[in-house]
Amino acid sequence: LPFYLRFFIYFDIDIIKLKYWERFYWKKANAVVVVSSSDEKLIKNEEPKLKTSIIPNCVGDEMIADKLEKKDLKFPTIFFQGNFFWLQNVEAAKFIINKIYPQLIKELPSVKVVIAGQNAKKLGNLINKNIDIINIEPDDINKVKELFKKNTLFIAPIFGPGGTRLKILAAMGSGMPVISSVTGIEGLEVTNNKNVVIADNPEEFVSKIKQLLSNKNIYEKIRNNAYKLVKEKYQWSQTAKELESVYKNL
Description:
Layout: H1 3-28, E1 32-34, H2 37-46, E2 52-54, E3 77-81, H3 87-107, E4 112-117, E5 131-135, H4 141-150, E6 153-156, H5 166-174, E7 178-180, E8 197-198, H6 202-214, H7 216-233, H8 236-248
Parallel strand pairs: 1-2, 3-4, 3-6, 4-5, 6-7, 7-8
Helix pairs in contact: 3-6, 5-7, 6-7
């Protein structure tokens, strides 16, 4: 067989094996915990009788601001953070650079874009005074906190499914409003135009960015609601109690 056909055959076999062993260990386990309702739905489609508990991933307490500080909306910085060892984060960053930014700079000449994360070299060499690409070392939590604290608005054009988005929670907890694709907020109990803003194409992202930056009341409403949601539902110091309860019942 040609190489490319062998590749697809082996890939399909690996997927079949993975599904088999997942279902095997789900049924063997004393407790099955998932991080989101969407993940639970996927499991229930495979094993309808399986009992599951939903305990969401949470943002580390160190990423949650003690209080919300004022943000400069006249000279805003649009922020995206991700681990660029993952393809979906690389795709999101390139979507921002190639699809969103060219339209955005025409509408908001003072805007800056900051893209940061591990393995940022994967994004290539970019020469643009308005786009800053920052590599973050794996253990440099202070740099991560600094970036989440100082930037104005977080955007997440993410199109790969699964799990919960810790970067979204970190942005909310640090006091940045989030504009995300529908896929980017899968697994999170958020509401459009209440604690997050949804956009799914470049034109929508540009429009929503302009709306938030030009209307301080909407900007503050979204970020205050998001901050409150993280404090109530996505903080480890509280959610750990739910996980502890699962362990005690084993």
